[in-house]
Amino acid sequence: MFKVKLNMIVLLMIVTILTGCYHPSNQAAGSDQVKFVIGVSQANLIEPWRVIMNEEIKEEVLKHPDVKIVFTDAVQNSGKQIRDVEELLEAGIDLLIISPNDSAELTPIVAKAYKKIPVIVLDRAVEGYAYTLYIGPDNKSLGKEAGQYIADLLRNGGNVVEIQGPAGLPSLRERSAGFREVLGQYNNIKIVATVIADWQRDKAEDEMEKLLQQYPKIDVVFAHSDYMALGAYKAAKKHGADGIQFVGVDGFSGPNGGLQLVEEGILEGTFTCLTGGREAILYAVDILNHEKGIPKKIIPRSNKITRYNVLEYLKAANEPRKENRSKKIVLGFSQLGAESDWRRANSQSIKNAALEAGIDLVFLEADQKQEKQIQAIRSFITQGVDVIAFSPVVEGGWDEVLEEAKMAEIPVLLSDRAIKPDDNSLYATFIGSDFLEEGRRAARWLVEKKIASQSVNVIELEGTIDSAPAIDRKKGFAEIIANYPQFQVIYSASGDFTEVGGQDMMKAALAIYGNQIHVVYAHNDDMALGAIKAIEEYGLRPGKDILIVSVDATAAAFKAMMAGKLNSTVECNPLLGPQLMQAVKSLMAGRQLPMRIITSEGVFSAETARQDYLNRRY
Q1: Do 335 and 347 form a contact (C-beta atoms < 8 A)?
Q2: Percent of the chain scored above 90 by pLDDT?
Q3: Are 48 and 199 in contact, with CB atoms under 8 Å apart?
Q4: Which of 17, 395, 419, 596 shows the smallest number of beta carbons within 10 Å?
Q5: What range(s) does the Periplasmic binding protein domain occupy (predicted)?
Q6: Lowest-confidence range among 363-372, 418-427, 455-464?
Q7: In this structure, are residues 477 and 570 in contact, taking their beta carbons and an 8 Å threshold?
Q8: Residues whose CB falls within 8 Å of the CB of residue 489, separated by 6 or more in sequence, listed in order
C-alpha cells in the first residue's frame, strides 16, 4: 500500500514539474507513511487571496502526517485547469480540491472527477450538485453588508467608487449586485465610477489616479479586495486627496493584510472572506476516513471589521480556545410542530443526538404558531439555557425576541428553516437544506423527462405561506422552467405542508382543469400523498396520467414510488440532530460557526426506488 502511494507521489511530482506547477513543499510527500494523497487544482496564484488559501492548506496538512498534497496552478486558463485535473486523476489521487477558474467551463471535469473520487469545490461553485462538498462565500450577502456599511458612513450622501477584480466573474457580479442593491435605496449616494483592477494593487493604484483627475469629489472607495483598496489609498495619498474613506474585502492578518490596514487607519473597514483552505483539509480528512454527517455546502460568515472592533477581533482570534466542561450544556429547542412525517423524523433525530452528545435538551413544540415559538424562546432566555435553536414557522417577525437573546448573551441557531432579520448577527448559523436548489432539482427532473407535449400544465402545491421552504422551492422551480416555455404553472395554492391540505388543493385544481393537468409539483411528500388520493378519487392514475414530483424523500414517498403513484422525490434530509449538536459544542468551545451549513441530499425516482429504499434511515 505505502509503496503504491510512494510511486504515485513520485509520478505526481514529475507531472507537476513538467507542467510548471510543482511547489518545493511537495518534496515532503515522499514519506513511506502516506495514506492519502490530495490534489489541489488552483485557478491561479496571481491573486493574493489564493496564495493565502494555498498557505492555509499547507499549514493544516502539516497536522496530518499521513496526508500529502500536490498543487497545480492553472494560471487563469480553464483549458489548462481541465488538463491539470485529468493528470491528477490519472495519477490516482484520493481526493480533489479545486477552485475553478470558470464555473461553467470546469463543471464537466468536476462531475467526471466526482464519479471516481470525492471532490471539494472552493470559492467558485460549479453548476449542479456533482461534488462532495462546496465551501465558499455568499457574495451577494457580502456585497449587501458592504453597501450598508458605506451607506452608514455616508449619512449625508456622497460619491462612491467601486474597484472590482477580473471582469465577468459570477462571484464578483453577485458581490457587486448586492452592493448596488443596497446603495440604490439611497438617493443621496451615487456610484460615480466602477473600474477593473484584476486583484492587482498596482493596477488599482493606476486606475485610482485616473479617477482622481476625472472626479474631484470622491468620498468612499469600495474595493473587492484589501490589496486593491491599498493601491487606491496609495494613489489618493500621492494625489493629496485627503478625506477619502477606503473599504475592502478579505480581512487577512499579517503584514499589509486587511486587519493591519484597518488597525493603522489606512482602511476604514474590511469584511472577512475566508478562503476555506484550512476547512477543506479538515473536511477532506473526515471524508477520506468515511466520517458521517459531512455537509454539502459550507458558507463561511463574513465579519465587519472597523477601527472600533479590530483589536477585539484580533484578540479573540489569537486567544487559545477554552472549552467549559465543568457543567452539562443545556439546549433549548423550539420545534415548529409535527405537521408531517419529515418533521417527526427531524424531531426524533434532534432528541436522539442530544442524548448521544450528553446535552440536556429542553424541547417545545409550537403547533405551527409563531407566537408560541416566541413564547418558547423567551422561556429559554428566562431559564438561562446555554444555546437556543429553533425551526421557524415563517421568515419574518423574529428580530425583537432574538435581540432579547443577544442581550442575554445566548447564541441562537436556526435549524431547517431560515429567517430574514434586519441584523444577521442575531443568529450564529443556519443548519439545513438548500431549499432553492431543491426546487431547481425538482424542475430539472421534470425537464429531463422530455414529456411529449407542446404544452405541459403544472399544478404547484405550496407549503406554508411565508415559510422559507415554500418561498425558495417555488423560486428555484420557477428559475429552471423559465428556460422551457412549454412548462406552465397553471394553478398554485398552499396546502400548508399537510396531506389533508394537499388533497384539498388538488381537488380544487382538478375541479377547474381536470384532464388538462400533466404534472403536480408538491413542496413536500405529505401534500403529494394527498394529491395522489385526490387524483384517484377523480378517476385518473397518479404517476401515469399525471406525473408527480415532490420534496422530502420520506418512507411514505418511497412506498408511493414503488407502487408507481409518485414519480420522483427530491431529498430534504431531516436528520439534522448530529450536525446541530456538533454546532452547539463548537459554540461552547468559543469557535465561530459558518453562516450556513447545508446538508447533503439526493434525488430519487420510481425506477430505482426499491433499491434506494433499502438504504434509507427515515
Answers
A1: yes
A2: 82
A3: yes
A4: 17
A5: 38-272, 333-591
A6: 418-427
A7: no
A8: 458, 459, 460, 478, 481, 521
Residue 459 has pLDDT above 50, yes or no: yes
Averaged pLDDT for residues 586-591? 86
pTM of the model: 0.81
Beta bridge partners of 38: 69, 95
**Three-state DSSP state, 25:** helix
**Which position has the grid cell 466520517?**
291
pLDDT for residue 15 is more than 80: no
Q: What angle do CA 517, 551, 133 make, to 5 degrees?
A: 135
Give yes or no: residues 356 and 250 share one domain.
Answer: no
pLDDT tens readout for residues 107-126 = 999 999 999 999 999 999 99
pLDDT at 8: 54
Helix residue ranges, H only, 92-157: 103-114, 139-153
pLDDT at residue 167 in the model: 87
- Among 176, 165, 184, 102, which residue's Cα sits nearest to residue 139? 176
Whether 469 contacts 430, CB under 8 Å = no
126 and 78 within one domain: yes
User: Which alpha helices (H) appear in 361-498, and where do they start and end?
Assistant: 370-383, 399-407, 435-448, 468-481
* Strand runs labelled E in 91-228: 95-98, 119-122, 133-135, 158-164, 189-196, 220-223
Q: Comparing C-alpha atoms, which of 299, 294, 274 is closest to residue 118? A: 294
Q: In degrees, to the nearest 5, what angle opens at C-alpha 591 toward C-alphas 148 and 358? A: 130
Cβ-contact 542, 531 below 8 angstroms: yes
Q: Are 509 and 495 in contact (CB under 8 A)?
A: no
Q: How far apart are CA 139 and CA 173, in angstroms?
A: 9
Q: In what order do the strands lie in the sheet with 519-522?
A: 487-494, 456-462, 519-522, 547-552, 568-571, 603-605
Q: Same domain, yes or no, for 43 and 155?
A: no
Give me 53's grid cell: 488559501
Of 553, 572, 591, which residue sits at a domain end?
572
Q: With beta carbons less than 8 A apart as the criterion, state whether 387 and 361 touch.
A: no
Q: For residue 252, which of 219, 229, 234, 285 has the smallest C-alpha distance?
A: 229
